Amino acid sequence: QVQLVESGGGLVQAGGSLRLSCAASGHTLSRYAMGWFRQAPGKERDFVAAISWGGSNTNYADSVKGRFTVSRDNAKNTMSLQMNSLKPEDTAVYYCGTTYNSGNSLPAQYKYWGQGTQVTVSS
């Protein structure tokens, strides 16, 4: 069993930056690829980014390419999402999850999830 806890969300103006973190406990993360998703009110949970277990492979949604960067530190059992040039449309609850392949971009392909952290971008 893996427990995931996201942190780092908040309110930021358009053009600003935030750094989200996902901390794991209960099991080492080194065997899992991991990803970030987001869900706005009334909408589906959408893929944002993923990273392979070793960190060498990454995958991004087109809407965040060039603005967001995913990274991980297996020694600390953490994953991060650096979000720059934020836009109002990035407003959502952000979730981290574990999977087996960094190419996976569907929620059903992820096994463990955190509780989410709110990101709000004002215009």
State the separation between the terminal residues, measured CA to CA. 40 Å
Helix content: under 10%
Task: For the largest sheet, list the strands in their spatial order.
Answer: 2-10-9-4-5-6
Number of strands: 10
The helix count comes to 0
Task: Work out the strand percent.
Answer: over 45%
Low-confidence stretches: none
C-alpha-based Rg, rounded: 13 Å
Outline, from the CA principal axes?
globular
Main sheet: strands, sense, barrel: 6 strands, mixed
Index terms:
single chain, 123 residues, 6-stranded mixed beta sheet, 49% strand
Quick overview of this protein structure:
Helix content is 0%, strand content 49%. It is an all-beta fold and 123 residues long.
Description:
There is one protein chain. The chain has 123 residues and is mostly beta strands. It has strands spanning 3-7, 10-13, 18-25, 33-39, 45-51, 58-60, 68-73, 78-83, 92-99, 117-122. A six-stranded mixed beta sheet has the order 2-10-9-4-5-6, with no helix packed on it. The protein has a four-stranded antiparallel beta sheet with strand order 1-3-8-7, with no helix packed on it. A hairpin with a 4-residue loop joins strand 7 (68-73) and strand 8 (78-83). The model has no long low-confidence stretch (mean pLDDT 95).
